[in-house]
Amino acid sequence: MKKRLLIAAGIAALFIVTGCSNQPTLENAQETNQTAAAQQKAQPANAQNNGETNGTETVNTENANVQEESITGETDKKQQFVKNLAEVVVYFDFDKYNIKSTEWPKVEKLANLIKDNPANYTVRIEGNCDEWGTEEYNYALGLKRAKTLKNALVKLGVDPKKLTIISYGELNPVCSEHTKECWSKNRRDNFTYLP
Amino acid sequence: MIKKIIILICAVFLFADELVITKYFNDKPKIEINFHGNNQVLKILKMDLTVLDHFNYSINNDGNATYRFEFNYSNKRLLVKYYEKNLLKLEKIYKSNSYAYFPFLVHKAVYDINRWFNMPDAEFLIRKVVYSMLVAPKQSNIYISDYTLSYKKRIISGGLNIFPKWADKAQNIIYYTALKRAPTLYRLNLRTGKKEKLLTSQGMLIVSDVGKNKLLLTLAPEGQPDVYEYDVLSKKLIKITKYEGIDVNGKFWGDKTVFISDRYGMPMVFSKTFHGSVTRVLYHGKNQVGVDAYKNYLVISSRESDNAFKANTFNLFLVNKNDDSLKRLTFSGQNSYPNFSVDGNSIMFIKRENFYSKIGIIRLNENKVFYYPLPKILQSFDW
């Protein structure tokens, strides 16, 4: 098994190294004596993929099987909770971050859902926006949407330590058509389970 | 007089509804280019000369112009010869180690010709553009390109990598935010590959502006977006704005900081001295969502229509602090994310019209605007 991991790590490392192509360079009239090789020597490790796509994280599934039987019940319960959490979506009006009265029942349901699961976890509230507006302001708008939800959940008795917030601005659309209906679907808060 | 009017009409037709054509038109030096090379290189050359708009140029016309330039491109090498009255004055060779880099060879050659004539600075030609582009939900990569976006190199991928900003004048280092479990600010040296983690904050963390050893950040450590000043050397963080709503997009503007705030119920541009009070900058429009600053100038993206989704939604305005003047720069579409060039002579922005995005470049002295189509949504850029 160790040998396999070593081979996998070796291949991943090879991908990273070959992926680090040199940044092309420009030489002007004063630099024409320099060869491309010399330039490359002067810039040994240029702009590169940061490796996040080629990350070397590995999962050892051998031991997971051993524990599977004893934690099945807990896993099912957790999976159901994660699913229920993902099904809640709170929508907002254009350029607003206050919770609409029509969305309040969802917030109350969400608060009960979290309170009924006292285990050790965090819920990430993700604020999202439509494609309108300048990006920085859009991120702040998404964040305020997430913060509003956090405040409401805390008022409804949820432990603030269980909640974290993030804004994805317009970068996590669920709908990409250019229609009002589509934009309204993107102005939303999602909720993600973080172990 | 007749000639002047004809030129004016043609110009207005070409750049309809955008800007009023004024000076420079009849005074531009006449140059002749003899070009030998492939069509892609020629296309970039034409783009450069058109967008620069400092010359009356013709290509391969075999005329007897006073100023003539020979361009020879082959095998990743561009040879440019300068002739004045058919006398060879100068010879320059531009080389790169990659064919894909040819747009920069042409840009540099045109930049040098512009300098030869002592024309107004056009550094945008040789500056690199760093931008983030959404490629899939929760997936945005960071790329480097030339100003025409013809050359493109992916430098960061995997997850959400957003708001890249040049950290140095030489364009070797960038700041960017990676949206992981919490937003994290990195400083990446493109030459050495060295990556430093600077800050992590809950909610949001964006470099809004880069000054001398200082950054303006939008941070939300408690989930509350405010403008902060970050000292790169001492790592000290100072909170500039304190408002319970939204304060974002801070820009250095002389001894002041300008930023966007919704403290009047909708986003507007405000300014603030370090210890002073907050002042509204522009009493025009209903919704000001983007701002950039250069010396005494501000460029602001402002919504004028009551209908949030009407075609004529956001337009760009140029504010001059010295004479309190306000100049409209665009007339239609949704024009956002205005960004001054380093020499302040040009403004790059994103235009959305009829459900398409494009990059716009406004040449301020020349009173012209040029567009390039965009294949996908550009998240943000710096040049």
CATH topology of the largest domain in chain B: Neuraminidase
Bin the strand percentage of chain B: over 45%
Straight-line distance between termini of chain B? 40 Å
Distance between the termini of chain A: 27 Å
Average pLDDT score of chain A: 70
Shape of chain A: globular
Number of domains of chain B: 2
Q: Given the helix and strand composition of chain A, which structural class is it?
A: alpha+beta
Strand order, main sheet of chain A: write it out.
2-5-3-4
User: What is Rg of chain A?
Assistant: 24 Å
For the record, the CATH class of the largest domain in chain A is Alpha Beta
Q: Look at the structure and give the mean pLDDT of chain B.
A: 86
Q: Decide which structural class fits the backbone of chain B.
A: mainly beta
Quickly count the helices of chain A: 6
CATH fold-level assignment of the largest domain in chain A: 60s Ribosomal Protein L30, Chain: A
Categorize the overall geometry of chain B: globular
The CATH architecture of the largest domain in chain B is 6 Propeller
Count of β-strands of chain A: 5
Question: What fraction of residues of chain A sit in β-strands?
Answer: 5-15%
Major sheet description of chain B: 5 strands, mixed
Structure in words:
The complex is a heterodimer of chains A (195) and B (383). Chain A has 195 residues and is an alpha+beta fold. Chain A has two domains: 2-42, no CATH class; 68-194, 60s Ribosomal Protein L30, Chain: A (2-Layer Sandwich). In chain A, 47% of the residues lie in helices and 11% in strands. Chain A contains six helices and five strands; from the N terminus they run αβααβαβαβαβ. In chain A, strands 2-5-3-4 form a four-stranded mixed sheet. In chain A, helix 4 (104-115) crosses helix 5. Chain A starts with a helix and ends with a strand. In chain A, 31% of the residues are buried. Mean pLDDT of chain A is 70; it is low at 10-71. Chain B folds into two domains: 25-119, Rossmann fold (3-Layer(aba) Sandwich), CATH 3.40.50; 124-382, Neuraminidase (6 Propeller), CATH 2.120.10.30. In chain B, helix 2 (39-52) runs parallel beside helix 3. In chain B, 11% of the residues lie in helices and 49% in strands. Chain B is globular and about 70 Å long. In chain B, the strands form seven sheets. Chain B has a five-stranded mixed sheet. Chain B is mostly beta strands and 383 residues long. Chain B contains three helices and 29 strands. Chain B has helices at 2-14, 39-52, 102-116; strands at 30-36, 56-59, 67-74, 77-84, 87-96, 129-136, 139-145, 152-156, 160-166, 173-179, 183-189, 195-200, 205-210, 214-219, 226-231, 237-239, 247-253, 256-261, 268-273, 278-280, 287-294, 297-303, 314-320, 325-328, 334-340, 346-353, 356-363, 368-373, 378-382. At the A-B interface, strand 1, helix 2, helix 5 and strand 4 of A face strand 5, helix 3, strand 8, strand 9 and strand 17 of B. Strand 1 of chain A pairs antiparallel with strand 5 (87-96) of chain B, so a sheet runs across the interface.
